[in-house]
Known about the structure:
Blueprint: E1 4-12, E2 18-27, E3 32-36, H1 43-50, E4 58-63, E5 66-67, H2 72-77, E6 79-82, H3 94-104, H4 111-120, H5 136-148, E7 154-158, H6 166-181, E8 185-189, H7 193-199, E9 202-207, E10 210-216, H8 217-224, E11 227-233, E12 250-252, E13 257-262, H9 271-280, E14 285-292, H10 295-309
Parallel strand pairs: 3-8, 3-9, 6-7, 7-8
Antiparallel strand pairs: 1-2, 1-4, 4-5, 9-10, 11-13, 11-14, 12-13
Amino acid sequence: MAMVKIEGVWKRYEGGFEALRGVDLDIEQGEILALLGPNGAGKTTLISAICGITQPTEGTIRVGGHDVIEDYRVARNLIGLVPQEINLEPFEKVINSVRFSRGLFGKKPDDALIESVLRKLSLWDKRDNRVMELSGGMKRRVLIAKALAHEPRVLFLDEPTAGVDVELRKDMWDTVEELKRDGVTIILTTHYIEEAEAIADRVGVINKGQILLVEEKQSLMTRMGQKELRVELAEPLTTVPEALGSYALTLAEGGMSLVYAYDTGAERTGIASLMADLSAAGLQVRDVHTAQSSLEDIFVGLVTAQEDAA
């Protein structure tokens, strides 16, 4: 059974705007799912619907088998949410703010657990500081600590590292990996696609309220990614020689490089014949490089294709 199960979810607002349009999505226990999409794609609306902050117009959402509307309290008790906005009580001490979050979920006091969470996020030495005394990055750490205080089984990270320091990102990803080992399901939305590429098990792409795909990260990159062969030349070219026209080469770097895209899954890449034909055309090769398409390249291509089809 999926830890989070979303079936046929729509969210319509007055005036007819559809923030979610028939979303179906299963998220398995203990996986890290990166949900990517441009601004206004529906990422935050989907998270809000799962967390019970907003109610879907149609469809059902279950967390741990519990309907988020009919059995709200049990479902919500399983969820930790790190929102985009920093919404903290400015005059409260850090440790009391985190303790309070645990109490909101009816959990018994556990100072050892609170200390562990604060230490993991480098907040222990700030535990007696008032929130208003902290930097923006430290406030973001407090949000994460509050979300972890009641030991959730599903953790939502909604743009958690937007505008924060590199050190926090490292601390947080270390914590995420530890939570994953403990079986916690983690859903991450981010604009830092390299982070999704580094830690996610699966990648979902959402745009205009629709899920364009959900796929295992490496499988997605293998299936949709291309490699590029970049051939650096000893002398610049003004045009690609006619003898090389069948390779669909592009000139780059002021004519000093030829770029050749090829499918890694194809029976033949054509590289061997290209190198032979370069030599036959009298071109002197200075160096050769290959590069794999990144997750960002794939994401941009999917969103652009949807825009073009609209």
